[in-house]
Amino acid sequence: MRSPHAWQTLAVLLLSRVSASPLALRTSPTPRSSETNAPSSVFISDPASLVNLFIGTTNGGHVFPGATLPHGMAKVGMDTDSPGNQAGYDADPQFNVTGFSQLHDDGTGGGVSLSLFKVFPFASCGDTDEFETCATSVNGRKTLRKVLANGSPDDAAEPGYFSTNLSTDIRVELTATRRTAIHRYTFPDSSVNPRLVVDITDDGQQSMTDPVLTIDPDTGRITGGSSFEASFGPGRYRAYTCVDFQGQGFTLDQPTEHGTWLQDAPIKQSVSLHQQYVSFLNQLGGLLTFNPNLNGTTTILARVGVSFISPEQACANAEEEIPDFDFDSVRSSARSQWNELLGRIQVDPQGVDSETVSLFYSSLYRTHISPADYTGENPKWNSSEPYYDSFYCNWDTFRTLYPLMSLHDGANFARIVRGMINIQQHEGWLPECRGATAKQYIQGGSNGDPILGEFFVKFSEQAASLNVSADDLYTALLADAEDQPPNWDLEGRQVNIWKSLGWIPSDVWESSGTNTKQVSRTLEYAFGDFAISQVAKIMGKKSDGDKYAQRAGNFINVWNPNTTVPGRPDIVGMMQPRFENGTFNFTDPRHCSVNDPLQSTCFLDARNVDGFYESSPLVYSQFVPQDIAKLVELQGGSEKFISRLNFLFDEHYFDETDEPSQQIPFMYHYANAPGLSIQTSRQVISQFFNTSVNGLPGNDDSGAMGSYVAFYLAGLYPVPATQQYLLGSPWFPQISFHNPTLGTTTTIKANGFRGNPVNGTGGNVFVKSVTIDGVLSKSNCFLEWDVFQKGSTVELELTDDISVTCGEGDGALPPSLSTGGFD
Ligand SMILES: *[C@@H]1O[C@H](CO)[C@@H](O)[C@H](O)[C@H]1NC(C)=O
Ligand SMILES: *[C@@H]1O[C@H](CO)[C@@H](O)[C@H](O)[C@H]1NC(C)=O
Ligand SMILES: *[C@@H]1O[C@H](CO)[C@@H](O)[C@H](O)[C@H]1NC(C)=O
Ligand SMILES: *[C@@H]1O[C@H](CO)[C@@H](O)[C@H](O)[C@H]1NC(C)=O
Ligand SMILES: *[C@@H]1O[C@H](CO)[C@@H](O)[C@H](O)[C@H]1NC(C)=O
Ligand SMILES: *[C@@H]1O[C@H](CO)[C@@H](O)[C@H](O)[C@H]1NC(C)=O
Ligand SMILES: *[C@@H]1O[C@H](CO)[C@@H](O)[C@H](O)[C@H]1NC(C)=O
Ligand SMILES: *[C@@H]1O[C@H](CO)[C@@H](O)[C@H](O)[C@H]1NC(C)=O
Ligand SMILES: *[C@@H]1O[C@H](CO)[C@@H](O)[C@H](O)[C@H]1NC(C)=O
Ligand SMILES: *[C@@H]1O[C@H](CO)[C@@H](O)[C@H](O)[C@H]1NC(C)=O
């Protein structure tokens, strides 16, 4: 049972600003009592109350803290004029609010993403409060938020809900269904002419062309749309909105004034855009004035439908999803959907500080913002299959996001996979970095392959009932693996030369894509082919399985055994650029690390000739998840492998801000030193990840960082497209995963849990032995998928001895291709 003290700790958290919720915890038997697994002593019934949406909302995290359903299309949130407003919001209160827009992404780089159709309230306008004096442009209208005594802005959020108080004394609240947002504006009593602006042109990057706008003076309905530039690619897209208004607790009647506006000039009575202005003015929209509620508070609801098809569809979506403008029921339905999803993973918070519990559920929450369910909103073709968008980018998410979905959310995973296959069927290749219905720039290889591989390895038996066609899935994988696209910057791979040579040479200039990132692409193509071999084997395609497993071994073609780190002759052997004739070029292993003497960045740039993307050769020299045993051998054996890992951490080559480093802390497992993995992974969390607004060291990258942190706190790390999860120890005495797709629950119990060590160092957290349903496991270092598939109780015996091992016998180390694993 939980102690009263633990109750108190959690109660403090529940009342924190980001949650206005009732009790999250109930000491009760699990409601899944029909299942055989032992229930947790505590059931977290309202995990939404433990989610802090503001983590990483300043200093470059680019996290979206607004309101959305799990994988919802509508992501309604506040937009600020900060430089880091890729997801609209910035938690630094010095930045002004420019509006409340309907669609966003989470944690991306690139330009501001989807900050479309801002609504903005005026309590009054100018000195005279006349319609024409309203400063309607972004710069004219922008307003600060109220600031609390502690210096933070007066903003609050919980899953499915966001609110703020503006310096104009207007309170703004937001919630959403899948394709529709509803806003609630509460005006001050002094507001005689409450007004609302609808901006149809500002997307945060001033890319608008071809706007249309219509105002219905009788109902106040505003419909419109424009074309915009995608955030991270050459493509453009068109989007539409439909905004309706209603009073809360009073009858709004028709607007008392209406008109369009151009920059800071509202034009009374005008009901559509003057096309002659459109060509040279880039800020346009509609403005409405309403009667205040003379009998009480003036609260006006704005229901904002969105569509990528047409304004009519935006209206239809809104009417269907929020017919009665019931803000509170939309909010509570969103919260229940989040609670159902988040509650599938239960942690026992006893003896764990509330910050860690909050970090876990907040990270899990961010795993489910993207990709987004745009079903019915694909402007490019009609299909009855689901359509998902905002894959931004697979390069970020293939490592941890989908393997986390496998553990508790097979149904959404299946829908995403169906959407990906459908895109391949219509466009030829799987989506990689699709956003706003456009192809965006690929960061590395074809990383959709390990995502489909992950799905099929985990759910091949359920695929048919989840309506995923195994044949179509395999065909889609083969397109990436075999067919060179017209432009590999946007889809597919530079596959012809990959097939003929077995690496991407740095001196062959093909014209259908950028000749850059050749080494990191080689490594990722090899891993993509590994994923395909895994699928082929399950499907009984033995020769394909062998063929792609062999191609998965091509990583070795860019391994130069003689390259050393300047000043460290003992660190020898490195992934390096290689010419077509087989000789190697040289890229300084420190390149684009914090220790790079040239301080290069390795971001996407056609001029980069170094061969690597967003990480150093030292980091990429660890990226062979399919064959780490071979890496250990190449690096000179276990002892040298460990000392190289230590070097990466001691000298800060490990890069906590970027995905290629994510597996590195767990790689001591492969040198039979799992205690070092456990300690290092805990140190990484302690040092770099926390619940403050700057608690993310880099971009969240569509939940890639969120899912990574959730895994680390769960004491697991996935090897995508395999049956294995690397095992550490959870930050909780117990964690359980309920998987509705399989109808099973797996509980991991940490016997001897005595709390989490300060800074992640030492502690009674090392795994001495593992039993699965009472039977001693062959390995302390990984769990087979089978454990989760059938639903098991896993018990870890903890010790404070860091020198634990994976075990003695064959099969104690996690599998690798070259040692016969994965068959
Ligand atoms: C926000 O707006 C206020 C009032 O217009 C202005 O004084 C301030 O400089 C703005 N802040 C930023 C960061 O632009
Ligand atoms: C805004 O003001 C309202 C009314 O005073 C208050 O209830 C609320 O907590 C404030 N903060 C937010 C973020 O809504
Ligand atoms: C004003 O509010 C009172 C009490 O809620 C109600 O009886 C009355 O009908 C309202 N008047 C109008 C004009 O809405
Ligand atoms: C989809 O079907 C609708 C209704 O038949 C049609 O109007 C529309 O043009 C189709 N869209 C595409 C992209 O084919
Ligand atoms: C699979 O497709 C069938 C037939 O269209 C449908 O009845 C069923 O609901 C679908 N199942 C899932 C999980 O989508
Ligand atoms: C590495 O060095 C050895 C010994 O000097 C040499 O035989 C070998 O060709 C070198 N390999 C490469 C790839 O340069
Ligand atoms: C291999 O190719 C590189 C770059 O094209 C060239 O500089 C080098 O001389 C070639 N080496 C041999 C042995 O042909
Ligand atoms: C070899 O590497 C250097 C350093 O990155 C680079 O400047 C040069 O262009 C490369 N050579 C070729 C042929 O790619
Ligand atoms: C929280 O994490 C950020 C990002 O890694 C870091 O800069 C900051 O120092 C951390 N704060 C605390 C209190 O640990
Ligand atoms: C670790 O924690 C101790 C005790 O709180 C503190 O004194 C020390 O500075 C921390 N070390 C690091 C590297 O954060």
From TrEMBL:
Residues 50-307 form the Glycosyl hydrolase family 92 N-terminal domain. GO terms for molecular function: carbohydrate binding; peptide-N4-(N-acetyl-beta-glucosaminyl)asparagine amidase activity. InterPro entries: 6-hairpin_glycosidase_sf, GH-type_carb-bd, GH92_a_mannosidase_put, GH92_N, Glyco_hydro_92, PNGase. One of its GO terms (cellular component) is cytosol. Residues 313-799 form the Glycosyl hydrolase family domain. It comes from the Eukaryota. Residues 1-20 form the signal peptide. GO terms for biological process: carbohydrate metabolic process; glycoprotein catabolic process. Gene3D superfamilies: 2.70.98.10, alpha-1,2-mannosidase (1.20.1050.60), alpha-1,2-mannosidases domains (1.20.1610.10), GH92 mannosidase domain (3.30.2080.10). Keywords: Hydrolase, Signal. This is Glycoside hydrolase family 92 protein. It comes from Obba rivulosa.
